[in-house]
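Ticket #4471: structure export looks truncated?
Reporter: QA, pipeline team
Priority: medium

Steps to reproduce: submit the single chain below to the structure queue and open the exported record.
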Amino acid sequence: MHAMQYSVTLPADYDMEIIRHRVKTRGHLLDGFDGLGLKAYGIRERGTDGSPVNEYAPFYLWADDEAMNRFLLGDGFRGVVRDFGRPAVHNWQGLYHRPGPAADRLPTAFTRRTVPVPEGADLAAVVEDALAAHEDPATADGVHTTALGLDPRRWELLHFTLWAGAAPESAVGERFQVLHLSAPGVGRLGAGRQW
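Actual output as written to the record:
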């Protein structure tokens, strides 16, 4: 499993209905994309849920590395580049994935939090602590999916949780509204630790 996200920051006065329309008319195109575990079409709106910006920021969990490459080099990402310029694409190696109790419902929000791995820390111990911290949220009411990833270039951990309903106040991290979910290969993402 690989986690991936790119973010397109938009002007403060940008009409976010343009993004809603884009997702409504194009989101279904990845509903059957072979090798994609899931894609949450996320947005943040300036002044909503503490967001300082308007942002289009889809989040992906890939079941297949070849599929991720096929997307990045194909028409799907080409359309993003054409319309918004080429954004930086963040990648995390998948360490953990688990469907939650609300996996049978459509998610409406996700939270994303990145945490640096402290210099000199024992990486295995830090990851074990992060995994332990994921076990409780994975079974919390309203959780659709939760995942943990590692970026070994920047040495940071990614905590990602999809929510069926609003993310609770206790959920830590940036909050995104989900406009659509494509999940053709969610069953191929596995459950639990990924090594």
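Status: closed, not a bug. The export was complete when the record was re-opened. Leaving a note from the reviewer for reference: The longest strand covers residues 89-99.
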